[in-house]
């Protein structure tokens, strides 16, 4: 791996042909409230998007099984343990 990429979330998703583009955003302090700022764009082919989605579903199932998620929400003040990264990206 060459570098890390950080985003607070996805600001928007655009689909053009077989490419899926994610506008990654970071939260920036503003006048009394945070504002979203698009910082980078992640582009992947449709097949890569589907594979990433399937992997994220596995992660969500594991987090739910471990009690860190309930109804898709993270418990407040809960630290998330580092998950062991397998060579194949499997959980």
Protein architecture, described:
The protein is an alpha+beta fold and 91 residues long. It has one domain. 22% of the residues lie in helices and 36% in strands. The chain contains one helix and five strands. The chain has a three-stranded antiparallel β-sheet. Strand 4 (69-70) and strand 5 (73-74) form a beta hairpin. The longest helix has 20 residues, at 46-65. It is globular and about 40 Å long. The model is unreliable at 86-91 (pLDDT under 50).
- The domain count comes to 1
Alpha-carbon distance between the termini? 19 Å
Number of strands: 5
| Helix count from the secondary structure assignment | 1
The general outline is globular
Query: Unreliable segments (pLDDT under 50, ≥5 consecutive)?
Result: 86-91
The oligomeric status of these chains comes to: single chain
Rg, Cα atoms, Å: 16 Å
What key phrases describe this protein's structure?
91 residues, alpha+beta, 3-stranded antiparallel β-sheet, two-stranded antiparallel ribbon, globular, disordered C terminus
Show the helix and strand layout:
Blueprint: E1 9-16, E2 19-28, E3 35-45, H1 46-65, E4 69-70, E5 73-74
Antiparallel strand pairs: 1-2, 2-3, 4-5
Structure at a glance:
Helix content is 22%, strand content 36%. It has 91 residues and is an alpha+beta fold. The chain starts with 8 loop residues before the first strand and ends in a 17-residue tail after the last strand.
């Amino acid at each position: 791996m060459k570098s890390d990429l950080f985003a607070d979330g996805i600001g928007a998703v655009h689909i053009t042909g077989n490419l899926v583009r994610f506008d990654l955003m970071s939260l920036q302090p503003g006048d009394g409230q945070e504002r979203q700022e698009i910082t980078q764009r992640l582009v992947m082919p449709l097949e890569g998007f589907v594979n990433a989605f399937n992997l994220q579903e596995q992660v969500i199932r594991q987090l739910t099984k471990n009690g860190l998620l309930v109804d898709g929400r993270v418990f407040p003040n809960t630290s998330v343990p580092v998950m062991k990264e397998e060579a194949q990206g499997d959980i």
